[in-house]
Every structure is written in C-alpha cells, then in structure tokens.
Amino acid sequence: MAPYEPVYIPVPADWSIPPLHFQVHDSASFGSITFFDNVKPPALMLEAVLHVLKALYVPESVPRHVRSITLILRPMPGVAHTTSNTLDDAHKEIHLSSQYVAKNAGRARDEIYGVIVHEMVHCWQFDGGGTCPGGLIEGIADWVRLKAGFAPPHWSRTSPPEKWDAGYEQTAFFLSFIEDKYGSGTVVKLNESMRDGRKWDEGVFEGVTGRGVEVLWGEYRRTFGRTSGGNGGGGGGEPAVPTHGV
User: Fold this and answer.
1) What's the pTM?
2) Is residue 119 within 8 Å of residue 160, measured between CB atoms?
C-alpha cells in the first residue's frame, strides 16, 4: 500500500501548537511497518491536533497549557491511552499499541487517524478538575473523532444505552444529535464550562439548549422509538482520571 499523502491543514497564526514528538519502540514489527506504510507521523499528529482544536475551540480560546505532545508506538495490550509525563503534567504522551495496528492492517490508515484524534482530545479537553463524568470525557473524544470523519464501521446509532453518559461512541452520537438539533457549538460550550478547573454541572445542558439532559436524552431515544427510561441524569459515569484510553 502506498503511503497516505495527507492534506495539510493551514495552522492559524494565533494558535499555539506545542512541539510534537514521535517515538517507536519496535520498528521492525508488522504493526510498526503497517503504521509507516499508511501514515506519516508528523502529519498524523499535526492533523489530529488541528481536528481537535477546530472542533472544541475558537482561536481566542485555544488552551496554552500543553507544552509538548509525544506519540509513542510500542508493543502493549489494548488500543491506546493518553497520560502526562511523570515530571510535568503539561507534557502529554499518547501510547499506541503496535499490536492493535497490526490487527487492523486492513483499514490501518483510518483506524490510526481515528484513534489518535480520540487520544489527542484528551491532551486538550477540560474536565472540571476531574469532576466530569468519565463517560462524557470519552464521549467528547469520540464526538471529535466522528466529526473528523474517522468513525469505524462497527459504530452504530441503532441501539442507544440506558444512560446518556455511557461513553465513547454512544455518548458521541448523543452529542452529535444535540449539535444537529440545537445548533453548532453546543459541545464547545460544554467543554468550555469546565475551563480553569470549574466543576462539572449537568445544568450546563439546560443553559446551552434550554432543556435539561434528561429531556434531551429522552428526545434522542425517542428518535429510535424508545422511551427515555434508565438514569438520564449525568453523574453516572466514573470520575475522570489523568489517564484516558480507548
């Protein structure tokens, strides 16, 4: 397969893009070879950053606290996770499993981009000083992945769970529904409400859309011919933690 030729997205002059670094721990493995056959690390990282910043911020609100981001391709279980350097929280690390890349060789380019966009969100998003439900943290990350056009083929809207903050693509589809019905910028406002450590408050949904999250979740579920049921209120997810993964 010929290497993917990325379309470079212009970087707004007033955005502060931190240094982007790349490490590979097993360059001769099938997963790493597949990675290099499908993506170019500098373009992958820059495009992922820009997808995130364009989705969640306007130029005036782009966070300035991230000092560097390092993508590390290495053998490990799972898919990927994001954490901070042990010496400085402002230095972020995204760890991507080379085994996972190998298992997805058939659609490697789109899967790599999708996973890295998701993880890149965790480098930049606000979490209310750790008070935001974990399901919303992951849902926002997958919403950005969905918006960027990298939803994998197994994602489905056809069976919504009982809770709005179930996380990942389930919450991402809910957020997409809200954006479509109540206007672009809804997710931006949800994220911005947690800036500077302000604690998460599910009342922000009503402030942004005029409807509480339980009402919104009921509306969403009724689009599938189902009643709202379950725990429609926020707070059902696990608290956000410094390390996130998919």
Assistant:
1) 0.87
2) no
